[in-house]
Design brief:
By secondary structure, the protein is of the alpha/beta class. The protein has a single domain, classed as Alpha/Beta hydrolase fold, catalytic domain (Rossmann fold, 3-Layer(aba) Sandwich). About 35% of the residues lie in helices and about 25% in strands. It contains nine helices and 13 strands. The chain has a seven-stranded mixed sheet with strand order 3-5-4-6-7-12-13, sandwiched between helices. Helix 2 packs across helix 9 and helix 3 packs across helix 4. The radius of gyration is 18 Å and the shape is globular. The termini are far apart.
Protein backbone atom coordinates (compact mmCIF):
# COMPACT_ATOMS: atom_id res chain seq x y z
CA UNK A 1 0.00 0.00 0.00
CA UNK A 2 2.77 2.46 0.97
CA UNK A 3 4.68 1.80 -2.26
CA UNK A 4 1.50 2.43 -4.25
CA UNK A 5 0.96 5.74 -2.46
CA UNK A 6 4.51 6.92 -3.06
CA UNK A 7 4.30 5.74 -6.67
CA UNK A 8 1.16 7.83 -7.12
CA UNK A 9 2.77 10.92 -5.56
CA UNK A 10 5.96 10.64 -7.57
CA UNK A 11 5.87 13.07 -10.48
CA UNK A 12 5.98 11.28 -13.82
CA UNK A 13 8.54 12.65 -16.25
CA UNK A 14 7.12 13.92 -19.52
CA UNK A 15 9.91 13.35 -22.03
CA UNK A 16 10.16 15.53 -25.11
CA UNK A 17 13.27 13.76 -26.41
CA UNK A 18 14.18 10.07 -26.62
CA UNK A 19 17.60 8.50 -27.03
CA UNK A 20 18.85 4.95 -27.47
CA UNK A 21 18.29 4.18 -23.78
CA UNK A 22 14.86 5.81 -23.47
CA UNK A 23 13.52 9.18 -22.35
CA UNK A 24 15.92 12.10 -21.97
CA UNK A 25 15.03 14.61 -19.27
CA UNK A 26 15.44 18.19 -20.49
CA UNK A 27 15.21 21.68 -19.02
CA UNK A 28 14.87 24.77 -21.21
CA UNK A 29 15.85 28.19 -19.88
CA UNK A 30 14.60 31.22 -21.79
CA UNK A 31 15.49 34.91 -21.37
CA UNK A 32 13.13 36.82 -19.08
CA UNK A 33 10.05 38.02 -20.91
CA UNK A 34 10.84 35.92 -23.97
CA UNK A 35 7.82 34.78 -25.99
CA UNK A 36 8.62 31.71 -28.09
CA UNK A 37 5.59 32.38 -30.29
CA UNK A 38 6.79 35.81 -31.43
CA UNK A 39 10.44 36.25 -30.42
CA UNK A 40 13.68 34.70 -31.66
CA UNK A 41 17.04 34.01 -30.01
CA UNK A 42 20.04 31.66 -30.15
CA UNK A 43 20.27 28.57 -27.96
CA UNK A 44 23.14 26.73 -26.27
CA UNK A 45 23.00 22.97 -25.69
CA UNK A 46 24.56 22.33 -22.26
CA UNK A 47 26.17 18.95 -21.54
CA UNK A 48 27.09 17.77 -18.04
CA UNK A 49 29.89 15.46 -16.99
CA UNK A 50 30.37 11.87 -15.82
CA UNK A 51 28.02 10.91 -12.94
CA UNK A 52 26.67 14.46 -12.88
CA UNK A 53 23.34 15.91 -14.04
CA UNK A 54 21.71 18.98 -15.52
CA UNK A 55 21.02 20.23 -11.99
CA UNK A 56 24.64 20.18 -10.89
CA UNK A 57 27.24 22.96 -11.16
CA UNK A 58 28.14 24.51 -13.52
CA UNK A 59 25.10 23.76 -15.73
CA UNK A 60 22.33 25.73 -13.91
CA UNK A 61 24.60 28.74 -13.37
CA UNK A 62 25.54 28.79 -17.05
CA UNK A 63 21.89 28.55 -18.09
CA UNK A 64 20.94 31.49 -15.86
CA UNK A 65 23.87 33.62 -17.03
CA UNK A 66 23.11 32.94 -20.69
CA UNK A 67 19.45 33.86 -20.19
CA UNK A 68 20.44 37.21 -18.69
CA UNK A 69 22.26 37.98 -21.94
CA UNK A 70 19.35 37.04 -24.17
CA UNK A 71 20.51 33.51 -25.01
CA UNK A 72 18.30 30.48 -24.38
CA UNK A 73 19.69 27.11 -23.36
CA UNK A 74 18.62 23.52 -23.05
CA UNK A 75 20.26 21.25 -20.51
CA UNK A 76 19.59 17.53 -20.28
CA UNK A 77 20.51 14.42 -18.35
CA UNK A 78 22.47 11.87 -20.33
CA UNK A 79 21.06 8.34 -20.23
CA UNK A 80 21.19 6.74 -16.76
CA UNK A 81 21.91 10.16 -15.20
CA UNK A 82 19.53 12.43 -13.32
CA UNK A 83 15.95 11.87 -14.44
CA UNK A 84 16.72 10.26 -17.78
CA UNK A 85 16.01 6.61 -18.45
CA UNK A 86 18.59 3.88 -18.91
CA UNK A 87 21.00 1.77 -16.86
CA UNK A 88 24.43 3.13 -15.99
CA UNK A 89 26.07 -0.17 -16.87
CA UNK A 90 24.89 0.34 -20.47
CA UNK A 91 26.11 3.95 -20.78
CA UNK A 92 28.78 4.59 -23.43
CA UNK A 93 30.31 7.59 -25.16
CA UNK A 94 28.48 6.51 -28.31
CA UNK A 95 25.00 6.46 -26.78
CA UNK A 96 25.66 9.70 -24.88
CA UNK A 97 26.61 11.26 -28.20
CA UNK A 98 23.35 9.90 -29.60
CA UNK A 99 21.51 11.55 -26.68
CA UNK A 100 23.10 14.90 -27.48
CA UNK A 101 22.25 14.54 -31.16
CA UNK A 102 18.62 13.75 -30.29
CA UNK A 103 18.43 16.90 -28.16
CA UNK A 104 20.01 18.90 -30.98
CA UNK A 105 17.45 17.56 -33.44
CA UNK A 106 14.68 18.68 -31.09
CA UNK A 107 16.21 22.16 -30.80
CA UNK A 108 16.56 22.46 -34.57
CA UNK A 109 12.81 21.93 -34.80
CA UNK A 110 12.01 24.92 -32.57
CA UNK A 111 10.86 27.83 -34.72
CA UNK A 112 12.19 30.54 -32.38
CA UNK A 113 15.81 29.32 -32.37
CA UNK A 114 18.31 31.15 -34.58
CA UNK A 115 21.91 29.98 -34.01
CA UNK A 116 22.99 27.02 -31.88
CA UNK A 117 26.09 26.58 -29.73
CA UNK A 118 27.44 23.61 -27.77
CA UNK A 119 28.91 23.80 -24.26
CA UNK A 120 30.16 20.74 -22.41
CA UNK A 121 31.93 20.13 -19.12
CA UNK A 122 34.26 17.17 -18.47
CA UNK A 123 32.84 14.05 -20.20
CA UNK A 124 30.14 16.33 -21.58
CA UNK A 125 32.97 18.29 -23.18
CA UNK A 126 34.20 15.15 -24.94
CA UNK A 127 30.67 14.52 -26.23
CA UNK A 128 30.23 18.13 -27.36
CA UNK A 129 33.58 18.13 -29.15
CA UNK A 130 33.13 14.82 -30.90
CA UNK A 131 29.54 15.54 -31.97
CA UNK A 132 30.56 18.93 -33.37
CA UNK A 133 33.30 17.18 -35.34
CA UNK A 134 30.87 14.59 -36.67
CA UNK A 135 28.52 17.37 -37.78
CA UNK A 136 31.12 19.55 -39.51
CA UNK A 137 29.52 19.06 -42.92
CA UNK A 138 25.97 18.65 -41.64
CA UNK A 139 23.16 21.25 -41.57
CA UNK A 140 22.90 20.61 -37.80
CA UNK A 141 26.50 21.80 -37.23
CA UNK A 142 26.73 24.13 -34.19
CA UNK A 143 27.84 27.73 -34.75
CA UNK A 144 30.40 27.59 -31.92
CA UNK A 145 31.75 25.30 -29.23
CA UNK A 146 32.87 25.78 -25.61
CA UNK A 147 34.64 22.98 -23.73
CA UNK A 148 35.23 23.19 -19.98
CA UNK A 149 37.90 20.75 -18.78
CA UNK A 150 37.09 18.25 -21.57
CA UNK A 151 37.88 14.79 -20.20
CA UNK A 152 39.82 13.16 -23.03
CA UNK A 153 41.70 11.45 -20.19
CA UNK A 154 38.88 8.90 -20.15
CA UNK A 155 40.56 7.03 -23.02
CA UNK A 156 43.95 6.91 -21.28
CA UNK A 157 42.27 5.82 -18.05
CA UNK A 158 40.49 3.00 -19.88
CA UNK A 159 43.80 1.88 -21.40
CA UNK A 160 45.45 2.02 -17.98
CA UNK A 161 42.65 0.08 -16.27
CA UNK A 162 41.49 2.79 -13.92
CA UNK A 163 38.55 5.07 -13.23
CA UNK A 164 38.82 7.33 -10.22
CA UNK A 165 39.76 4.96 -7.38
CA UNK A 166 38.70 1.80 -9.19
CA UNK A 167 41.30 -0.49 -10.81
CA UNK A 168 40.79 -3.37 -13.23
CA UNK A 169 42.50 -5.47 -15.91
CA UNK A 170 42.41 -3.20 -18.97
CA UNK A 171 43.10 -6.12 -21.32
CA UNK A 172 40.16 -8.10 -19.96
CA UNK A 173 37.77 -5.84 -18.06
CA UNK A 174 35.06 -7.43 -15.90
CA UNK A 175 31.36 -7.10 -16.75
CA UNK A 176 31.38 -3.90 -14.72
CA UNK A 177 33.57 -1.88 -12.38
CA UNK A 178 32.18 -0.29 -9.22
CA UNK A 179 32.88 3.45 -9.40
CA UNK A 180 31.38 5.50 -6.58
CA UNK A 181 28.29 3.27 -6.29
CA UNK A 182 27.87 3.17 -10.07
CA UNK A 183 28.48 0.16 -12.32
CA UNK A 184 30.74 1.24 -15.17
CA UNK A 185 30.19 -1.35 -17.89
CA UNK A 186 32.73 -3.39 -19.81
CA UNK A 187 31.23 -2.03 -23.05
CA UNK A 188 32.07 1.53 -22.01
CA UNK A 189 35.65 0.57 -21.15
CA UNK A 190 36.41 -1.37 -24.33
CA UNK A 191 34.86 1.31 -26.55
CA UNK A 192 36.68 4.11 -24.71
CA UNK A 193 40.01 2.40 -25.38
CA UNK A 194 39.44 2.79 -29.13
CA UNK A 195 38.03 6.32 -29.24
CA UNK A 196 39.64 8.76 -31.64
CA UNK A 197 38.69 11.74 -29.49
CA UNK A 198 41.00 14.36 -30.97
CA UNK A 199 40.81 13.01 -34.50
CA UNK A 200 37.03 13.33 -34.60
CA UNK A 201 36.86 16.57 -32.63
CA UNK A 202 39.38 18.39 -34.84
CA UNK A 203 37.11 18.08 -37.89
CA UNK A 204 35.16 21.00 -36.44
CA UNK A 205 36.42 24.27 -37.90
CA UNK A 206 34.23 26.77 -36.06
CA UNK A 207 35.33 28.92 -33.13
CA UNK A 208 36.19 26.99 -29.98
CA UNK A 209 36.55 28.29 -26.41
CA UNK A 210 38.57 26.03 -24.10
CA UNK A 211 38.57 26.64 -20.34
CA UNK A 212 40.80 24.56 -18.09
CA UNK A 213 42.02 24.85 -14.50
CA UNK A 214 45.76 24.72 -13.88
CA UNK A 215 45.14 22.62 -10.77
CA UNK A 216 42.82 20.05 -12.35
CA UNK A 217 43.76 16.70 -10.81
CA UNK A 218 41.12 14.67 -12.68
CA UNK A 219 41.80 15.98 -16.19
CA UNK A 220 45.27 17.56 -16.21
CA UNK A 221 45.79 20.79 -18.12
CA UNK A 222 47.82 18.93 -20.77
CA UNK A 223 44.56 17.57 -22.18
CA UNK A 224 43.19 21.06 -22.66
CA UNK A 225 46.46 22.09 -24.28
CA UNK A 226 46.23 19.19 -26.70
CA UNK A 227 42.69 20.18 -27.66
CA UNK A 228 43.97 23.71 -28.30
CA UNK A 229 46.75 22.37 -30.53
CA UNK A 230 44.24 20.20 -32.38
CA UNK A 231 41.68 22.85 -33.33
CA UNK A 232 42.10 25.40 -36.12
CA UNK A 233 40.21 28.22 -34.39
CA UNK A 234 40.48 27.83 -30.62
CA UNK A 235 41.47 29.91 -27.62
CA UNK A 236 42.57 28.25 -24.39
CA UNK A 237 41.80 30.07 -21.13
CA UNK A 238 43.90 28.68 -18.29
CA UNK A 239 42.38 29.48 -14.89
CA UNK A 240 45.25 29.54 -12.40
CA UNK A 241 44.58 27.52 -9.26
CA UNK A 242 41.26 26.16 -10.50
CA UNK A 243 40.33 22.50 -10.17
CA UNK A 244 38.19 20.20 -12.26
CA UNK A 245 34.80 21.15 -10.87
CA UNK A 246 35.37 24.85 -11.48
CA UNK A 247 33.94 26.25 -8.25
CA UNK A 248 36.81 28.40 -6.99
CA UNK A 249 36.65 30.95 -9.80
CA UNK A 250 33.20 30.09 -11.12
CA UNK A 251 32.17 33.68 -11.83
CA UNK A 252 35.23 34.22 -14.02
CA UNK A 253 34.69 30.92 -15.83
CA UNK A 254 31.01 31.52 -16.45
CA UNK A 255 31.83 35.03 -17.64
CA UNK A 256 34.34 33.74 -20.20
CA UNK A 257 31.93 31.10 -21.51
CA UNK A 258 28.96 33.46 -21.75
CA UNK A 259 31.00 36.23 -23.41
CA UNK A 260 32.17 33.71 -25.99
CA UNK A 261 28.60 32.67 -26.75
CA UNK A 262 27.50 36.30 -27.03
CA UNK A 263 30.31 37.07 -29.50
CA UNK A 264 29.47 34.08 -31.68
CA UNK A 265 25.69 33.71 -31.43
CA UNK A 266 24.24 37.21 -31.10
Amino acid sequence: MISKIFGFLRKKENYLVYGEQGGISTTMTLPEGFNPKTDHCPMVVLMHGFMSSKKMHPIPELAAALAREGIASISFDFNAHGKSEGNFIDMTIANETADAKAVLKYVKGLSFVTEIGFLGHSQGGVIAGMLAGQLENDPMRPKCLALLAPAAVLKDDALAGQCMNARYDAANPPAYVNVMFHKLGRTFILAAQKLDIYGVSCRYTGNVCLIHGSNDKIVPLSYGERYDATYQNSVLHVIEGEGHFMRKYKDEIIGIAVDFMKENLL
